[in-house]
Amino acid sequence: MSCLSAMGMDEAWVSEACGYLVPRAAGMFIWATTVAKFLKKNPKQRFDILKTREHERGADRFEELYSLYSTVIRTSFHDLEEEEIQAFASVIGATIFAKQPLDDTRLMRLPGVDTLKFIRDGLVSVIDSGPILRFHHRSFEDFLLSDSFRRYLLKLSDVQNRTFHECQLAVLCLNSMVSSELHFNICNLESSNIKNVDIPATVKSAISPLISYSSQFWADHLVQNQCEESLMNAVKFVMHKKLLFWIEAMSILGKAHEVSAILKKALEWPGLAVCLEYISSTTTLRLAG
């Protein structure tokens, strides 16, 4: 682990650290790289934490790796306020259950999430740098969903509450579609003749990443939820007022062929029939009037 030598510590410390850490890596590259990044912030103090932390038994798999992940989270998030615990659970849960990786802009739209800095700082050893919050290795996500995580990090266990996160993601998608971000002629094209239009550049400038994600995956998240009034009202509005705008956005995104499948998926949600009945009755009354 030559990276230990680059931390500015004396040779005796480097030798001791290598003697302790190398056997525990057991050939797992992800364990070694995670340890190196974890130690970088404060090598001596964090190495002492690793040595004194009792290794937890009963992890689902990769026992030493799970123990390391537990140490990373305990060290970084041991003194969170209640609001920060909720924000952590919302962001990490959304990262796990979203259909595509979400950037900071989209994650900041989750209720109660005012900043991602403390999350990014605390998880720097297990996430990629850049605008998208992405775990280095699938094993970290496995750990977050494991019995070990719930057992040893109970106060953060709402990370595993899929029902809650699917609701959060459904609300996020529907709220963005209800908003003025989804509108007629979303790319402000001057005519229906788009032969000379640079579609990728136009989409990138006119359709936000959140609208793109919401347009593609709102039904996937919706069907995981009960028929709550807030969701019912949002679906009614989208079906009644924004349906054609959504289809246009999907067409511009090159996803028009998925519209039928998405609507079929949405029909699995019991509340959609109620929404369609409401829309049908109001339309009939308007025509009769």
Topology diagram in text:
Elements: H1 11-25, H2 29-40, H3 43-52, H4 63-76, H5 82-97, H6 104-107, H7 117-122, H8 138-144, H9 147-152, H10 162-178, H11 199-206, H12 209-222, H13 229-252, H14 259-266, H15 270-288
What's the shape? Answer: elongated
Tell me the count of domains.
Answer: 3
Number of helices: 15
Helix and strand pattern? HHHHHHHHHHHHHHH
State Rg.
24 Å
What's the average pLDDT?
A: 83
**Which regions have little confidence, pLDDT < 50, spanning 5+ residues?**
54-61
Largest sheet: none
Question: Care to count the β-strands?
Answer: 0
Q: Please bin the fraction of helical residues.
A: 55-70%
Give the percentage of residues in beta strands: under 5%
Structural class: mainly alpha
Tell me what the structure shows.
The protein is an all-alpha fold. It folds into three domains: 2-52, no CATH class; 82-160; 162-288, no CATH class. 62% of the residues lie in helices and 0% in strands. The chain is built from 15 helices and no strands. The protein has helices spanning 11-25, 29-40, 43-52, 63-76, 82-97, 104-107, 117-122, 138-144, 147-152, 162-178, 199-206, 209-222, 229-252, 259-266, 270-288. Helix 2 runs parallel beside helix 4 (63-76) and helix 12 (209-222) packs across helix 13 (229-252). It is elongated. The protein starts with 10 loop residues before the first helix and ends with a helix. 29% of the residues are buried.
